[in-house]
Amino acid sequence: MIKKRWEMKKLLWSLFGIILLNIPVNGMMMEFDEMEWFTEFNGTKMFQTKSDVYSEAKFPMVGLTLIQSAAAKGAVCLDGSLPGYHLHRGSGSGANNWLVQLEGGGWCDTVRNCVYRKTSRRGSSSYMEKQIPFTGILSDQAAENPDFYNWNRVKVRYCDGGSFSGDSENKAAKLQFRGKRIWLAAMEELMGKGMHQAKQALLSGCSAGGLAAIFRCDDFGKLFPPSTRVKCLSDAGFFLDAIDVSGGRALRRLYAGVVKLQNLQTMLPRDCLDRLNPTSCFFPQNLINQVKTPLFILNAAYDSWQIQESLAPKSVDPSGSWNDCRLNYAKCSPSQIQFLQGET
Protein backbone atom coordinates (compact mmCIF):
# COMPACT_ATOMS: atom_id res chain seq x y z
CA MET A 1 0.00 0.00 0.00
CA ILE A 2 1.34 3.33 -1.01
CA LYS A 3 1.01 5.25 2.18
CA LYS A 4 2.92 5.63 5.41
CA ARG A 5 2.66 2.41 7.30
CA TRP A 6 1.80 4.10 10.55
CA GLU A 7 -1.10 5.86 8.85
CA MET A 8 -2.44 2.53 7.60
CA LYS A 9 -2.14 0.98 11.02
CA LYS A 10 -3.90 3.93 12.61
CA LEU A 11 -6.72 3.55 10.11
CA LEU A 12 -7.11 -0.24 10.24
CA TRP A 13 -5.34 -1.96 13.08
CA SER A 14 -8.11 -1.54 15.63
CA LEU A 15 -10.55 -3.56 13.55
CA PHE A 16 -8.77 -5.71 11.01
CA GLY A 17 -5.73 -7.84 10.37
CA ILE A 18 -3.45 -6.11 7.86
CA ILE A 19 -0.41 -7.30 5.94
CA LEU A 20 1.83 -4.84 4.11
CA LEU A 21 4.34 -6.35 1.73
CA ASN A 22 7.23 -4.53 0.10
CA ILE A 23 6.82 -6.30 -3.25
CA PRO A 24 6.15 -4.77 -6.67
CA VAL A 25 3.16 -6.89 -7.60
CA ASN A 26 -0.58 -6.38 -7.66
CA GLY A 27 -1.74 -9.04 -5.26
CA MET A 28 -0.80 -12.59 -4.35
CA MET A 29 -3.87 -14.30 -5.85
CA MET A 30 -2.77 -14.92 -9.40
CA GLU A 31 -5.37 -13.66 -11.87
CA PHE A 32 -5.94 -15.71 -15.01
CA ASP A 33 -5.29 -12.76 -17.31
CA GLU A 34 -1.78 -12.46 -15.86
CA MET A 35 -0.90 -15.82 -17.45
CA GLU A 36 0.57 -16.35 -20.89
CA TRP A 37 -0.01 -19.77 -22.46
CA PHE A 38 2.42 -21.54 -24.76
CA THR A 39 3.32 -25.09 -25.84
CA GLU A 40 6.76 -26.60 -25.31
CA PHE A 41 8.56 -28.49 -28.07
CA ASN A 42 7.40 -31.80 -26.57
CA GLY A 43 3.76 -30.75 -26.76
CA THR A 44 3.31 -29.98 -23.06
CA LYS A 45 0.95 -27.07 -22.50
CA MET A 46 2.54 -24.45 -20.25
CA PHE A 47 1.68 -21.07 -18.85
CA GLN A 48 3.97 -18.31 -17.67
CA THR A 49 3.30 -15.75 -14.96
CA LYS A 50 5.31 -12.75 -13.89
CA SER A 51 7.27 -14.92 -11.47
CA ASP A 52 7.52 -18.44 -12.87
CA VAL A 53 6.65 -20.97 -15.58
CA TYR A 54 4.28 -23.84 -14.85
CA SER A 55 3.06 -26.99 -16.55
CA GLU A 56 -0.66 -27.30 -17.01
CA ALA A 57 -0.42 -30.76 -15.46
CA LYS A 58 0.61 -29.32 -12.09
CA PHE A 59 -2.72 -27.62 -11.45
CA PRO A 60 -6.33 -28.71 -11.83
CA MET A 61 -8.08 -27.36 -14.91
CA VAL A 62 -11.52 -26.40 -13.64
CA GLY A 63 -14.52 -26.08 -15.92
CA LEU A 64 -16.84 -23.11 -16.26
CA THR A 65 -20.38 -23.48 -14.94
CA LEU A 66 -22.96 -20.99 -16.19
CA ILE A 67 -25.71 -20.04 -13.75
CA GLN A 68 -28.79 -21.15 -15.66
CA SER A 69 -31.22 -19.61 -13.17
CA ALA A 70 -29.62 -16.18 -13.49
CA ALA A 71 -31.47 -14.96 -16.58
CA ALA A 72 -34.88 -15.11 -14.89
CA LYS A 73 -33.44 -12.96 -12.08
CA GLY A 74 -31.91 -10.40 -14.44
CA ALA A 75 -28.49 -11.44 -13.14
CA VAL A 76 -26.56 -11.09 -16.37
CA CYS A 77 -23.23 -9.85 -17.71
CA LEU A 78 -22.81 -6.51 -19.48
CA ASP A 79 -23.99 -8.03 -22.78
CA GLY A 80 -26.90 -9.95 -21.24
CA SER A 81 -25.17 -13.36 -21.23
CA LEU A 82 -25.26 -15.71 -18.24
CA PRO A 83 -22.66 -15.24 -15.48
CA GLY A 84 -20.51 -18.16 -14.38
CA TYR A 85 -18.10 -19.67 -11.90
CA HIS A 86 -15.54 -22.46 -11.55
CA LEU A 87 -15.90 -24.93 -8.67
CA HIS A 88 -13.32 -27.48 -7.50
CA ARG A 89 -14.73 -29.71 -4.78
CA GLY A 90 -13.01 -30.17 -1.45
CA SER A 91 -12.10 -33.41 0.23
CA GLY A 92 -11.07 -34.91 3.56
CA SER A 93 -10.79 -32.37 6.36
CA GLY A 94 -11.74 -29.58 3.95
CA ALA A 95 -14.90 -31.14 2.55
CA ASN A 96 -17.15 -28.80 4.56
CA ASN A 97 -15.05 -25.65 4.17
CA TRP A 98 -15.54 -23.15 1.34
CA LEU A 99 -13.34 -20.49 -0.26
CA VAL A 100 -15.04 -18.15 -2.71
CA GLN A 101 -12.85 -15.88 -4.82
CA LEU A 102 -14.32 -12.93 -6.70
CA GLU A 103 -12.41 -12.37 -9.93
CA GLY A 104 -10.81 -8.99 -10.59
CA GLY A 105 -10.22 -7.06 -13.79
CA GLY A 106 -10.65 -3.29 -13.43
CA TRP A 107 -13.76 -1.29 -14.23
CA CYS A 108 -15.42 0.50 -17.13
CA ASP A 109 -16.35 4.11 -16.48
CA THR A 110 -17.89 5.23 -19.78
CA VAL A 111 -20.47 3.82 -22.17
CA ARG A 112 -17.78 3.44 -24.81
CA ASN A 113 -15.48 1.52 -22.48
CA CYS A 114 -18.29 -0.75 -21.31
CA VAL A 115 -19.45 -1.45 -24.87
CA TYR A 116 -15.90 -2.50 -25.69
CA ARG A 117 -15.68 -4.53 -22.50
CA LYS A 118 -18.74 -6.60 -23.35
CA THR A 119 -16.82 -8.05 -26.30
CA SER A 120 -14.37 -9.66 -23.85
CA ARG A 121 -14.48 -12.13 -20.98
CA ARG A 122 -14.76 -9.14 -18.64
CA GLY A 123 -18.23 -8.38 -19.97
CA SER A 124 -19.57 -11.57 -21.50
CA SER A 125 -19.50 -15.26 -20.65
CA SER A 126 -19.45 -15.92 -24.41
CA TYR A 127 -15.74 -15.03 -24.28
CA MET A 128 -14.85 -16.74 -21.01
CA GLU A 129 -12.44 -19.66 -21.00
CA LYS A 130 -14.19 -23.02 -20.67
CA GLN A 131 -11.47 -24.16 -18.27
CA ILE A 132 -8.91 -22.30 -16.17
CA PRO A 133 -6.04 -23.52 -13.94
CA PHE A 134 -6.55 -23.13 -10.20
CA THR A 135 -3.30 -21.71 -8.82
CA GLY A 136 -2.16 -19.84 -5.73
CA ILE A 137 -4.88 -19.70 -3.09
CA LEU A 138 -7.05 -21.89 -5.34
CA SER A 139 -4.41 -24.59 -5.85
CA ASP A 140 -5.01 -28.18 -4.72
CA GLN A 141 -1.31 -28.59 -3.87
CA ALA A 142 -0.72 -28.77 -0.11
CA ALA A 143 2.87 -27.54 -0.45
CA GLU A 144 1.74 -24.41 -2.29
CA ASN A 145 -1.60 -23.80 -0.59
CA PRO A 146 -1.43 -25.50 2.83
CA ASP A 147 -4.43 -23.76 4.36
CA PHE A 148 -7.02 -24.19 1.61
CA TYR A 149 -5.81 -26.91 -0.77
CA ASN A 150 -8.58 -29.37 0.14
CA TRP A 151 -11.41 -26.87 0.63
CA ASN A 152 -14.23 -26.37 -1.82
CA ARG A 153 -12.71 -23.60 -3.95
CA VAL A 154 -14.74 -21.33 -6.21
CA LYS A 155 -13.83 -18.58 -8.64
CA VAL A 156 -16.79 -16.35 -9.53
CA ARG A 157 -16.18 -14.71 -12.91
CA TYR A 158 -16.33 -10.93 -13.20
CA CYS A 159 -18.41 -9.54 -16.06
CA ASP A 160 -20.26 -6.47 -14.77
CA GLY A 161 -17.51 -3.83 -14.72
CA GLY A 162 -18.54 -2.46 -11.32
CA SER A 163 -17.06 -4.79 -8.67
CA PHE A 164 -20.25 -6.84 -8.23
CA SER A 165 -22.17 -3.75 -7.07
CA GLY A 166 -24.52 -2.39 -9.74
CA ASP A 167 -28.19 -2.94 -10.47
CA SER A 168 -29.13 -0.76 -13.44
CA GLU A 169 -28.95 -0.70 -17.23
CA ASN A 170 -28.34 1.52 -20.24
CA LYS A 171 -30.97 0.52 -22.78
CA ALA A 172 -29.60 2.72 -25.55
CA ALA A 173 -26.18 1.06 -25.38
CA LYS A 174 -27.63 -2.37 -24.54
CA LEU A 175 -25.59 -2.58 -21.35
CA GLN A 176 -26.62 -4.45 -18.22
CA PHE A 177 -25.03 -3.35 -14.95
CA ARG A 178 -26.18 -6.23 -12.77
CA GLY A 179 -23.20 -7.00 -10.55
CA LYS A 180 -25.21 -7.18 -7.32
CA ARG A 181 -27.70 -9.58 -8.89
CA ILE A 182 -24.85 -11.73 -10.22
CA TRP A 183 -23.44 -11.91 -6.71
CA LEU A 184 -26.82 -12.98 -5.30
CA ALA A 185 -27.42 -15.55 -8.03
CA ALA A 186 -23.96 -17.05 -7.57
CA MET A 187 -24.31 -17.27 -3.79
CA GLU A 188 -27.75 -18.86 -4.08
CA GLU A 189 -26.41 -21.50 -6.44
CA LEU A 190 -23.39 -22.25 -4.26
CA MET A 191 -25.52 -22.50 -1.14
CA GLY A 192 -27.62 -25.05 -3.00
CA LYS A 193 -24.46 -27.02 -3.82
CA GLY A 194 -23.53 -27.48 -0.19
CA MET A 195 -22.05 -24.18 0.95
CA HIS A 196 -24.92 -23.76 3.43
CA GLN A 197 -23.32 -26.57 5.46
CA ALA A 198 -19.91 -24.87 5.64
CA LYS A 199 -18.02 -25.06 8.91
CA GLN A 200 -15.63 -22.39 7.67
CA ALA A 201 -16.10 -19.94 4.80
CA LEU A 202 -13.74 -17.37 3.34
CA LEU A 203 -14.72 -14.71 0.81
CA SER A 204 -11.68 -13.52 -1.11
CA GLY A 205 -10.92 -11.40 -4.14
CA CYS A 206 -8.05 -9.77 -5.99
CA SER A 207 -7.85 -6.23 -7.39
CA ALA A 208 -11.36 -5.16 -8.43
CA GLY A 209 -12.46 -8.45 -6.90
CA GLY A 210 -10.67 -7.45 -3.70
CA LEU A 211 -12.73 -4.29 -3.62
CA ALA A 212 -15.84 -6.40 -4.20
CA ALA A 213 -14.85 -8.64 -1.29
CA ILE A 214 -15.02 -5.57 0.95
CA PHE A 215 -18.38 -4.49 -0.49
CA ARG A 216 -19.88 -7.96 -0.11
CA CYS A 217 -18.15 -9.09 3.10
CA ASP A 218 -21.07 -8.59 5.49
CA ASP A 219 -23.52 -9.91 2.88
CA PHE A 220 -21.43 -13.07 2.77
CA GLY A 221 -21.39 -13.36 6.55
CA LYS A 222 -25.17 -13.10 6.73
CA LEU A 223 -25.55 -16.19 4.54
CA PHE A 224 -24.39 -18.48 7.33
CA PRO A 225 -25.53 -19.44 10.83
CA PRO A 226 -23.53 -18.18 13.83
CA SER A 227 -21.82 -21.58 14.10
CA THR A 228 -19.97 -21.04 10.80
CA ARG A 229 -16.60 -19.28 10.99
CA VAL A 230 -16.76 -16.62 8.28
CA LYS A 231 -13.98 -14.24 7.25
CA CYS A 232 -13.07 -12.10 4.24
CA LEU A 233 -9.78 -11.38 2.48
CA SER A 234 -9.18 -8.43 0.17
CA ASP A 235 -5.99 -8.89 -1.86
CA ALA A 236 -4.69 -5.78 -3.67
CA GLY A 237 -8.16 -4.24 -3.40
CA PHE A 238 -7.49 -1.34 -1.04
CA PHE A 239 -7.49 1.46 -3.62
CA LEU A 240 -6.63 4.86 -2.17
CA ASP A 241 -8.30 8.17 -2.90
CA ALA A 242 -4.83 9.64 -3.30
CA ILE A 243 -3.38 12.74 -4.98
CA ASP A 244 -1.50 11.91 -8.18
CA VAL A 245 1.77 13.44 -9.42
CA SER A 246 -0.08 16.30 -11.14
CA GLY A 247 -1.91 17.29 -7.97
CA GLY A 248 -5.18 15.80 -9.20
CA ARG A 249 -6.99 12.59 -8.34
CA ALA A 250 -6.94 10.24 -11.33
CA LEU A 251 -8.57 7.31 -9.56
CA ARG A 252 -11.32 9.49 -8.15
CA ARG A 253 -12.20 10.55 -11.70
CA LEU A 254 -12.35 6.90 -12.79
CA TYR A 255 -14.49 5.88 -9.85
CA ALA A 256 -16.80 8.85 -10.35
CA GLY A 257 -17.46 7.59 -13.87
CA VAL A 258 -18.22 4.06 -12.65
CA VAL A 259 -20.53 5.29 -9.91
CA LYS A 260 -22.45 7.61 -12.24
CA LEU A 261 -22.70 5.16 -15.14
CA GLN A 262 -23.93 2.27 -12.99
CA ASN A 263 -26.11 4.47 -10.76
CA LEU A 264 -24.31 3.12 -7.71
CA GLN A 265 -25.53 5.89 -5.44
CA THR A 266 -28.52 3.63 -4.82
CA MET A 267 -26.42 0.52 -4.12
CA LEU A 268 -23.48 1.58 -1.95
CA PRO A 269 -23.59 1.22 1.86
CA ARG A 270 -26.16 3.58 3.36
CA ASP A 271 -24.11 4.35 6.45
CA CYS A 272 -21.37 5.69 4.17
CA LEU A 273 -23.76 7.60 1.91
CA ASP A 274 -25.18 9.31 4.98
CA ARG A 275 -21.73 10.80 5.56
CA LEU A 276 -20.07 11.12 2.16
CA ASN A 277 -20.77 11.46 -1.55
CA PRO A 278 -21.25 8.27 -3.63
CA THR A 279 -17.80 8.39 -5.25
CA SER A 280 -16.10 8.56 -1.85
CA CYS A 281 -18.14 5.51 -0.83
CA PHE A 282 -16.50 3.47 -3.61
CA PHE A 283 -13.16 3.81 -1.79
CA PRO A 284 -12.39 1.14 0.85
CA GLN A 285 -10.89 3.63 3.29
CA ASN A 286 -14.40 5.04 3.82
CA LEU A 287 -16.09 1.64 4.19
CA ILE A 288 -14.02 -0.72 6.29
CA ASN A 289 -14.84 0.78 9.69
CA GLN A 290 -18.43 -0.32 9.17
CA VAL A 291 -17.63 -3.91 8.12
CA LYS A 292 -18.63 -6.26 10.95
CA THR A 293 -17.37 -9.56 9.52
CA PRO A 294 -13.64 -10.21 10.17
CA LEU A 295 -11.77 -8.68 7.22
CA PHE A 296 -8.12 -9.13 6.33
CA ILE A 297 -6.38 -6.75 3.95
CA LEU A 298 -3.33 -7.72 1.91
CA ASN A 299 -1.61 -5.03 -0.15
CA ALA A 300 1.86 -4.46 -1.49
CA ALA A 301 3.73 -1.53 -0.01
CA TYR A 302 4.43 -0.48 -3.61
CA ASP A 303 1.40 -1.74 -5.50
CA SER A 304 2.26 -1.68 -9.20
CA TRP A 305 -1.28 -0.96 -10.42
CA GLN A 306 -1.76 1.96 -8.05
CA ILE A 307 1.55 3.48 -9.10
CA GLN A 308 0.85 3.06 -12.81
CA GLU A 309 -2.84 3.94 -12.90
CA SER A 310 -3.60 6.02 -9.82
CA LEU A 311 -0.51 7.90 -8.58
CA ALA A 312 1.51 8.35 -11.78
CA PRO A 313 -0.62 7.49 -14.82
CA LYS A 314 0.74 8.53 -18.21
CA SER A 315 -2.20 10.89 -18.67
CA VAL A 316 -0.93 13.19 -15.90
CA ASP A 317 2.79 12.83 -16.70
CA PRO A 318 3.21 14.37 -20.17
CA SER A 319 6.94 14.90 -19.68
CA GLY A 320 7.50 11.22 -18.96
CA SER A 321 9.53 11.94 -15.85
CA TRP A 322 7.84 9.04 -14.05
CA ASN A 323 8.26 6.47 -16.84
CA ASP A 324 11.06 4.43 -15.21
CA CYS A 325 9.62 4.67 -11.71
CA ARG A 326 6.16 3.78 -12.99
CA LEU A 327 7.37 0.49 -14.42
CA ASN A 328 9.81 -0.45 -11.66
CA TYR A 329 9.78 1.19 -8.25
CA ALA A 330 13.43 0.17 -7.77
CA LYS A 331 14.25 2.86 -10.37
CA CYS A 332 12.43 5.63 -8.51
CA SER A 333 14.44 8.60 -7.37
CA PRO A 334 14.57 9.51 -3.65
CA SER A 335 12.05 12.31 -4.20
CA GLN A 336 9.72 9.96 -6.05
CA ILE A 337 9.93 7.41 -3.23
CA GLN A 338 9.07 10.19 -0.81
CA PHE A 339 6.00 11.01 -2.87
CA LEU A 340 4.92 7.35 -2.99
CA GLN A 341 5.30 7.12 0.77
CA GLY A 342 3.17 10.19 1.32
CA GLU A 343 6.06 12.21 2.72
CA THR A 344 5.76 15.17 0.34
Automatic annotation (TrEMBL):
InterPro entries for this protein: PAE/NOTUM (IPR004963)
Descriptive protein name: Pectin acetylesterase
One MF term in the entry's GO annotations: pectin acetylesterase activity
GO-annotated biological processes: cell wall organization
Annotated localization: Secreted, Cell wall
Similarity-based family: Belongs to the pectinacetylesterase family.
Leader peptide range in chain numbering: none
A Pfam family the protein falls into: PAE
Function summary: Hydrolyzes acetyl esters in homogalacturonan regions of pectin. In type I primary cell wall, galacturonic acid residues of pectin can be acetylated at the O-2 and O-3 positions. Decreasing the degree of acetylation of pectin gels in vitro alters their physical properties.
Enzyme Commission no: 3.1.1.-
One cellular-component annotation, GO: plant-type cell wall
Keyword list, A-Z: Cell wall, Cell wall biogenesis/degradation, Hydrolase, Secreted
Domain of life: Eukaryota
